[in-house]
Amino acid sequence: MGKGRAPCCAKVGLNRGSWTPEEDMRLIAYIQKFGHANWRALPKQAGLLRCGKSCRLRWINYLRPDLKRGNFTVEEEETLIKLHNMLGNKWSKIAACLPGRTDNEIKNVWNTHLKKRVAASAGEQKKGGAKGKKKTTCVDVPAPAPSPSPSSSTTTTTTTTTNCSSGESGEQSNSSKELEFELDKIEIPMLDLGFDLDMLLDTVTNTHCPAIPSAPTSPCSSASPPCVVDDGALLDLPEIDIVPELWSIMDGEGGAGACAETAQDNAAPCHGKGTEARAATADDDDGKEWWLEDLEKELGLWGPIEDYQHQQPDPQGCVDPLSASVDDPVSCYFQAGPARATSAVQGPEASAVLANIPMDL
DNA sequence: AAAATATCCAACCGCTGTAGA
DNA sequence: TTCTACAGCGGTTGGATATTT
């Protein structure tokens, strides 16, 4: 603690707040090609006016190809409740047991929905009667927990661990043995989660995704394509001078918020079907395409990849000096997408600005 | 239709653990 | 052994959106 530690970044001149589609695509393009071995160096090399920490968060919580979006399923919620009973606010550990879900997302879901529900059902046991809320969403199930297994009272856990339902204070014994013991006693509905209890045990005790072969440098807990990307040329990237007008232009419309909205709307059809299975093949061509397609939809920039490729037949359009892959959908998209998709970024002005961005990542 | 309120969630902040010099 | 720098984690916040009045 007392060790001198520089702030994660000098905030001077760095962008903050919501990410623009342009930034997203830049980050994606970079990570796809070079991985994320060094978050601190990444934004500079990728030409992003963000600190590495911000890039990392954005990637892990939003851009990762293996993310599952949309509302939590009942199974996921119950799993979350039970895992929270066992682990407390160890969101990353819980996230490791819920494929496609991020710790941040899980934390949000818990704090906004499940905590209240659990508290309500706990209250019911005492005097009954949860306070009604104005807004009832499909997730905010008014009924008490369906309690599929009578023995697993999620609220007043009967486990021998300390009561951790209130969170951080419940820093219960986390040793693998004890945890294993607890897990053995609890039935967790993982019907559609694609893994069994053994995997769960592995996951929780090892705290990294079992399905992902660990990469030498990064733990690859985010199951990201960068794990399979060679980053040999990382340092060969040119210094990039950001054109300041770009951001103001990009900020003119949309932004991550609007895109997130689109993502919400498209979440179910877009990610619902087989995201995990598809994520498993994210490093092959098909995987790359669906991932980009999903992302495009979420960014409100959706269009067939072929369009971009066909729109940019000239070398300047899709050229990628470092990879020399003209058919890289990300690069192609990156060239054409924003100008096409964002009404604010159109016309000669936008073209001029975009032309100043070194696309040759 | 507009204002007020509630809710959600992406992003930020600060701390911790750890590896390397 | 100590110190530095980094990635990661958990808590919190603020803007955007949805719902109610």
TrEMBL record:
<dbReference type="InterPro" id="IPR015495">
    <property type="entry name" value="Myb_TF_plants"/>
</dbReference>
<feature type="domain" description="Myb-like">
    <location>
        <begin position="11"/>
        <end position="63"/>
    </location>
</feature>
<dbReference type="InterPro" id="IPR017930">
    <property type="entry name" value="Myb_dom"/>
</dbReference>
<dbReference type="GO" id="GO:0005634">
    <property type="term" value="C:nucleus"/>
</dbReference>
<feature type="region of interest" description="Disordered">
    <location>
        <begin position="120"/>
        <end position="178"/>
    </location>
</feature>
<keyword id="KW-0539">Nucleus</keyword>
<dbReference type="InterPro" id="IPR009057">
    <property type="entry name" value="Homeodomain-like_sf"/>
</dbReference>
<dbReference type="InterPro" id="IPR001005">
    <property type="entry name" value="SANT/Myb"/>
</dbReference>
<feature type="compositionally biased region" description="Low complexity">
    <location>
        <begin position="150"/>
        <end position="176"/>
    </location>
</feature>
<keyword id="KW-0804">Transcription</keyword>
<keyword id="KW-0677">Repeat</keyword>
<keyword id="KW-0238">DNA-binding</keyword>
<dbReference type="Pfam" id="PF00249">
    <property type="entry name" value="Myb_DNA-binding"/>
</dbReference>
<protein>
    <recommendedName>
        <fullName>Myb-related protein Zm1</fullName>
    </recommendedName>
</protein>
<keyword id="KW-0805">Transcription regulation</keyword>
<dbReference type="GO" id="GO:0003677">
    <property type="term" value="F:DNA binding"/>
</dbReference>
<feature type="domain" description="HTH myb-type">
    <location>
        <begin position="11"/>
        <end position="63"/>
    </location>
</feature>
<feature type="domain" description="HTH myb-type">
    <location>
        <begin position="64"/>
        <end position="118"/>
    </location>
</feature>
<feature type="domain" description="Myb-like">
    <location>
        <begin position="64"/>
        <end position="114"/>
    </location>
</feature>
